[in-house]
Each structure stands twice: as structure tokens, then as C-alpha cells.
Specification:
The protein is α+β, with helices and mostly antiparallel strands. The protein has helices at 28-35, 52-60, 78-85, 167-178; strands at 3-6, 38-41, 64-70, 89-90, 95-102, 104-109, 115-120, 124-128, 134-138, 144-150, 159-160. The chain binds ligand L3FJYLFB and fe (ii) ion (FE2).
């Protein structure tokens, strides 16, 4: 099962786990309520043979798909990209990632603006709603390979915080208050 926890305030190495003392874990139902993030566990070995991924894609309208590899060797402008990923930002649309190899951390702000760290490993499909403030970092193993999905033509634009006046941000916050799942704007 995916692991998620509230982060400490330590400014040290972003690739460490950053647990509070004592650790405060967040289960998947609470993650959804607190952030609007959705999660599916898939079997990487049978991904293209079983119907689970296809069903999710069809139901959610994901028509675009590609793959990203984050490693020194494979990611052009590696250092700059990683800095960009770890700068708090939002997107107008969902950010959908399915990890197929390696691992990393997505940090998402909860409804009280606290950081929750979500550890992603192979088989984890994490869906961040449009309008949520978040960031991503590799862990100490420095490698992740993930499939990215999108509804229609992909838009990767990141809007750094503060972007509170954006419609997608306002809609996200309204949806969160009503306890609704928030999707793309
Ligand atoms: C594992 S995917 C790399 C991170 C990324 O694509 C992104 O947009 C972070 O916000
Ligand atoms: Fe992002």
C-alpha cells in the first residue's frame, strides 16, 4: 500500500524521508479527503495484458500517454529539471503519474496547507488534481521511470506559488471544501 506522511520542517536534503517525530502517517482515504489526490495500485508485470489500466484510462478520458525517466543519464537538463520539479507549483490540469520503475516522492499541500509526502514505487498511479500546490523529488536512489497521462493535448506548464488567483486554484479549493473530487479545469 502506498505510504504517505506529514513532513517535518527540516530544510535538509530533500531526498530524505522527512518524517515528523513521532511519524504521522496518512492513509489513502484521508489523503483523498485532505488533498483531493486519487490513487490506484496496478500490477506493473501485467500492465499491458490485464484490463485495469485501460479501464482507468477509458473512464477518465486519458487519451495521451508518454514516459519520463528521471536520472542523470536520461533526463536532459537534469539538475535544472529537478530544481523545477521541487519548486512548489500547480497545473491547470491533473498530473497523472504511474511509476513503472524506481521511486520518488510527491509532496502535496493538504487543506490546512501542510505538506504530505507521498512515496511512489512501481505500480503506484497517483493523480494530483488541477490547482493543487505540489512538488516532486527523487529519493536517495536517484531514479524513477513513470508513465504520464493526459486528457487531450498535454500541457505541462507549471505555475509557481503564489498562483492563488487562477481559476483552477479557486475551483480546486471549492471542490475540496465540498468534499468533491476535483479534476481538470
Ligand atoms: C515522476 S514524474 C516527474 C515529476 C513531474 O513530472 C512533475 O510534473 C512534477 O510536478
Ligand atoms: Fe507538477
Amino acid at each position: 500500500m502506498v505510504r504517505a506522511w506529514y513532513m517535518d520542517e527540516d530544510e535538509g536534503d530533500q531526498r530524505n524521508e522527512h518524517h515528523k517525530n513521532p511519524p504521522e502517517f496518512v492513509d489513502i482515504e484521508d489523503l483523498k479527503k485532505l488533498t483531493g489526490c486519487e490513487y490506484f495500485k496496478l500490477n506493473v508485470a501485467t500492465l499491458d495484458k490485464d484490463n485495469t489500466l485501460k479501464k482507468i484510462k477509458d473512464e477518465r478520458g486519458y487519451t495521451y500517454e508518454d514516459e519520463i525517466v528521471c536520472s542523470k543519464e536520461c533526463l536532459p537538463n537534469y539538475e535544472d529539471k529537478l530544481k523545477m520539479f521541487y519548486t512548489e507549483h500547480l497545473h491547470t490540469d491533473e498530473e497523472i503519474r504511474l511509476v513503472v520503475e524506481g521511486s520518488g516522492y510527491f509532496d502535496v499541500r493538504d487543506k490546512n496547507d501542510k505538506w504530505i509526502r507521498v512515496e511512489v514505487v512501481p505500480g503506484d498511479m497517483l493523480i494530483l488534481p488541477g490547482g493543487i500546490y505540489h512538488r516532486f523529488t527523487l529519493d536517495n536512489k536517484n531514479y524513477i521511470r513513470a508513465r504520464r497521462f493526459f486528457i487531450g493535448e498535454p500541457v505541462w506548464t507549471a505555475y509557481n506559488r503564489p498562483s492563488d488567483d487562477m481559476d483552477c486554484r479557486k475551483e480546486y479549493l471549492q471542490g475540496l471544501q465540498k468534499g468533491k473530487s476535483v479534476r481538470a479545469s
